[in-house]
Amino acid sequence: MSRAPGIRWYVVQTQVNSEHKAAQHILRQGFDVYLPRYQKRRRHARKLDIIAKPLFPRYLFVAIDMATQRWRSLQSTYGVTGLVGHGDGPAAVPEGVVSELKAREDEQGFIRLESQPAFAPGDRVRVLAGAFLDSAGSFNAMADRDRVSILLEMLGRKVRVLLDADMVVAAF
């Protein structure tokens, strides 16, 4: 979608779990908003659900013409914490970032993420959540479509642990 020459994308930080609420209030003020979302598999009560989640929790993009729009009103918008930037004002998102995100959307408007982790057996990984939060281990294998098997060092020996694939990232 083409934009007027003075319009650039900026990042708005929202209150916790208020991305949709903030987006609605920003839209009412006449700004263009982009909230990239993806579909996340969630296990709850022995059931697997698929829910829409923000790709960047607590953040969304807003298109602003700094010369003509009253952008300072965004600072006090319901659900908004503030604009991301430096001392003298908000920092513009580099050209092409939003269009690249939009190009990765499927027909329903969700960002397509890689379904398989890009790990090889033996790769170092770190756990992002749960009882093993921040534990480092090594990738063992895919346990099934949504879960990975990793080896953690515990009590002097390696223990195999099964975790949701989205709970593990590469460790450096």
If you had to describe this structure to a student in words, what would you say it looks like?
The protein is built from 2 helices and 13 strands. With 172 residues, it is mainly beta. The chain has 2 domains: 7-103, NusG, N-terminal domain (Alpha-Beta Plaits); 124-170, SH3 type barrels (Roll), CATH 2.30.30. It has a 5-stranded antiparallel sheet with strand order 12-11-10-9-13, with no helix packed on it. The mean pLDDT is 88.
Record the SSE blueprint:
Blueprint: E1 7-14, H1 19-28, E2 32-34, E3 37-44, E4 47-54, E5 59-65, E6 80-83, E7 85-86, E8 89-90, H2 97-103, E9 124-127, E10 136-142, E11 147-154, E12 157-164, E13 168-170
Antiparallel strand pairs: 1-5, 1-6, 2-5, 3-4, 7-8, 9-10, 9-13, 10-11, 11-12
Quick summary:
The protein contains 2 helices and 13 strands, in the order βαβββββββαβββββ.
What attributes does this structure have?
Alpha-Beta Plaits, 2 domains, 2 helices, elongated, SH3 type barrels, mainly beta, 4-stranded antiparallel β-sheet, 5-stranded antiparallel β-sheet, 42% strand, single chain, 172 residues
